[in-house]
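dude i think i finally got it to work??
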Amino acid sequence: MDKGLLYFFAITAGLIIGLVICRRWRPLLAERWRGLFLIVPAIVISALPFIIWQLRPEWIWSDDRSYLMSLILLRSLVWILILLLNLLPVRWFPRQNGCGLTVLQKIFLLPVIAGLTGEAIVLLFNNGIWPVSDSLLTQSVGPAVAAGIRNNAYLFLRVIDQSTRLPWLGQIWSCPRLCLMNLAVLPTISPAEVTTAIGLFGIGLSQYFAPDCPVSRRKKPLGKSRSRKIKCREFTLKGK
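look at this
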């Protein structure tokens, strides 16, 4: 159960609303952000469980699910690392010339970190499986899909029972709009996913409430010959 499309929609909606309100294009450059080069490997790692499921299903369906658990942990760590890099003080990164995220932007990072951590915890505690409320399956899912989930026919979904750990972090809230907008397979969502989506929307919107970064004006070091000429000129001016 992955909400990658929901997260993309949330941050894109924040960016579009901010663009309409402020009518500024420069915040889209993300000049204040650090570690953006990690986004590409993070996306690849996030997609690996589904890619391996198609190519090497026996790796995912192992008895201890260690391979799947490792991918889930690695995915969460990479995304959280990107966010933590941007929470650090700007003085630790002299090349940014004092241009890091604003306080408002850092505040919106916190729910994303909390949400991603909650998702990782519930998946790791349940062997890489999303717990789903049985009552929600009865209300909003077709009989064939509900029967498949109850019979463990789906890879990442299981009905909440007595053996489920942290059931309150599972798919316990109904959200039919997710299916109507093609953002998820099931019309359900977890509290951790809601927290992550709200934070991402705030991150996109807060981009436009931060002032533009100043243009770097660092002087290039002078060569020896040029520095000597400057000293000679200063000496002659003093003599006059």
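The CA atoms of residues 3 and 173 lie 14 Å apart.
im so relieved honestly
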